Amino acid sequence: MDTAEGADPAALTEEQREIRRTLRDLLDRHAGRPAARTAPTEGYDPALWARMSGELGLPGLALPEEYGGAGRGTPALALVCEETGRALAASPLLATSVLAAPLVAALGTPAQRAELLPRIADGSLTCALAAPGGSLAHALGLTGDNTTGAWSGDGRAGGVQARPAPDGDGRLLYGEAEQVLDGHSAGLLLVAAHTGGFARSRTLLYLVRPEDAGPGLVRTRRTGLDPTRSPAGVQLRDVPATLLGEDPDDPADITRALAAAGRTAAVLLAAEATGAARGALERTLGDVAARERSGRPAGALRAARHRLADLHVQVEAARALTYCAAREPGPGPESGPFALAQALEALRAAAGEAVRLHGGTGAAPEHEAHLYFRRAAADELLFGPAARLRARAAERTGLLGEAAA
Prior knowledge:
- This protein is of the alpha+beta class.
- The chain has three domains: 5-94 and 114-124, Acyl-CoA dehydrogenase/oxidase, N-terminal domain (Butyryl-Coa Dehydrogenase, subunit A, domain 1, Orthogonal Bundle); 128-247, Butyryl-CoA Dehydrogenase, subunit A, domain 2, CATH 2.40.110; 255-403, Butyryl-CoA Dehydrogenase, subunit A, domain 3, CATH 1.20.140.
- 49% of the residues lie in helices and 13% in strands.
- It is built from 13 helices and seven strands.
- The chain has helices at residues 14-30, 34-37, 46-54, 73-86, 93-107, 110-121, 136-139, 210-213, 252-293, 298-326, 336-357, 368-383, 386-397; strands at 127-130, 160-164, 171-181, 188-195, 202-208, 217-221, 231-243.
- β4 and β5 form a beta hairpin.
- α4 crosses α9 (252-293) and α5 runs antiparallel to α9.
- The longest helix has 42 residues, at 252-293.
- The protein is globular.
- It starts with 13 loop residues before the first helix and ends in an 8-residue tail after the last helix.
- 50% of the residues are buried.
């Protein structure tokens, strides 16, 4: 179901086509192995990640060249996410390069950027964003207004609280966060926490280095709906932490940075979802073609091909919207959440049809069709649902005027 190069709605450059060909070949050979999807410790295949990092330089593709990145921006990283989605590849790319690295680049001090970004770019440092409250999408401003502190405890009960360390050096964090992608294995945690007491309560981001955290940091890998994602529970009991960047004069600067990072992440998640949808369609079309060769009734297969053609149009429309959003100038493309909503719906439809057309085998947990279906359901829970993404985006942009508010 791959689009012809000359009519590709993503309008890829020759360099981007070469990245796609090289990455697709690598993932086709390695990412589909059971060990690459269900690694018991890291949640991903370290050997595959080393090749993605060392040979292809994928973690630093969108990072500035001065920090060891390639400076190729969001469109190039979207292309990579599309291919990892197509293969359902388990890797730290989403948690590290999509969610955490942009925040370090946007908020970090010069010393923090110089220390952390080159290590992220070469793949030697993986990161995780720990947002308390159970809703990563809300923390990133995708499904709700993150300028209120309710998503992270509101400075009262719950969430993560930050208080000065007894020696006056840094902060101590106390609280917990659930659904932290790759939180069990990341080499660096970015933790959203309240500080300043009730009168000056504000949400800031702190760096937690697990090797320096001591026994107060407990990270537990959870069993997720999607075996290619690795959510974790993170408990902090007086864990030492360092503020990311400087304490801003305007506390809303942090939530605005989170929202901008969220809109860019929405584009990359949309690319990943459209890649997964295309992967599901490719495999389903292959199965239909095999049935035709085996002499199955033509009428039923012709109807299946009509349904797949309709789904192909839906997926390609989502893909075109995604790459338009990826090229949108400025921080945090406003059309990112719209693209993500479209992509999540396309993935859900394509994965559902894949399970249906594969019959009883498609419902088996180990079958690829079922894996795509689980990815669709998990993404809706983590980053959706699509209706709330559209409603929040319409409210932000004023698309529906006063009715949206």
